[in-house]
Amino acid sequence: MTTISFTAGVAPRDRIESVGLLALLGLVAAMQLSIAVTQILLTVAVLCWLAMHVSRRERIEAPPFFWPLVVYAALTLASAGFSLDPRVSFTDCKQLVLLLLVPVVYDFARIGRANSVLSIILTVGAASALVGIVQYGILNFDNLGRRPQGTLSHWMTYSGTLMLVICAAMARLLHGRQMRLWAAFIMPALIVSLMLTQTRGAWIGVAVGVGIVFLTKDFRLTALIPVAVVTAVLLAPTALTERFYSIFDKTDLTNRDRVAMLQAGVAIVKDYPLMGVGPDQIERIYPTYRVPDAVKPTNPHLHNVPMQIAAERGLPALGAWLWFVASAAIGLLRLLRRPRHRSLAAAGLGALAAMLAAGLTEYNFGDSEFQMLLLVMLTLPFAANRDGGIPE
């Protein structure tokens, strides 16, 4: 196992950059543990990043997929202006600050530091997985009303972050030259903990994400996915196998409700196609569009990323978000063709695919912790390949 080096390949050029780098490393470690600590460290990192650019008079640089996010943010603010309740919508827009993680990571985690950042993500993810296993086995977090959530506030957030970490660990295992044994060692804990959350969307997302990572190495590896699924079903407790089979049950209440939410979303988009109803307004308007087959009287969101964005922020915002996804995917595929840092590119591509798959049944892109971890993982391969990069 290789020792982590936070300045591999490039040393900080001044005190501001040193503080910013430390803040970034801290927030990357904290984002799977505490949202409050993460937000404090993000503020420090952003301020250092801004001060660094002002003092050096350098122009802001970022990966190509950042600019669609800027358009997405602008359209979100426009949607808030036309919202059913602008005050609430503009308050909700504070989450857009998280998008600054992209240029911050691109600057502070450049070249050799990127692999060290991913190592932190894997290590903290492993610790978080152990917490979830303890919660299930000892603290009786073993039913749908009380599931393992690690140190996070909700099991959906927890399962989403585990999903991304598993994609990163698999990419490190298949492509990495550093800490491959560590990735292999922590993988069982990550997978078991994800299974114990009983979060079906994350299960599907990790299957798709890992499948994409397999494709970046050898398409024949994808044959392992059905084998792993069958093995898990045979060995898992009855509650988990029943939860797995419920994915295909059309009469399952949560499945019915998600279909009903999609139907309501289509109706909302038809009535508010350009600007949507405004950020954080779905719960307010949902009862008006609720279909007879719906289970819950209201919902805070529509449990589907594209539909939520279209209904909440309008079709132009959805177009900008799809542009972001396409730009990130194209950029990562190009980086995969390079001989260096393939593990980072594969991890980013797997995370993107997992987000899209899981995002069909959950509004994961609206979850702060999940979004931050996703943006970091997408940015790391671009940061590592700045100025040609250095070998892993």
In words, what does this structure look like?
It is built from 17 helices and no strands. It has 392 residues and is mainly alpha-helical. Helix 7 packs antiparallel against helix 8. The two termini are 13 Å apart.
Topology (elements, then pairings):
Elements: H1 15-30, H2 35-56, H3 66-81, H4 86-92, H5 101-108, H6 113-137, H7 155-175, H8 180-196, H9 200-217, H10 224-235, H11 238-245, H12 253-271, H13 282-289, H14 305-313, H15 315-336, H16 342-358, H17 368-384
**Major beta-sheet overview:** none
Order of helices and strands: HHHHHHHHHHHHHHHHH
- Relative strand content: under 5%
Low-confidence segments, ≥5 residues, pLDDT <50?
1-5
Q: Keywords for this structure?
A:
about 400 residues; mainly alpha; about 65% helix; globular
Give a short overview:
The protein has 392 residues and is mainly α. Helix content is 67%, strand content 0%.
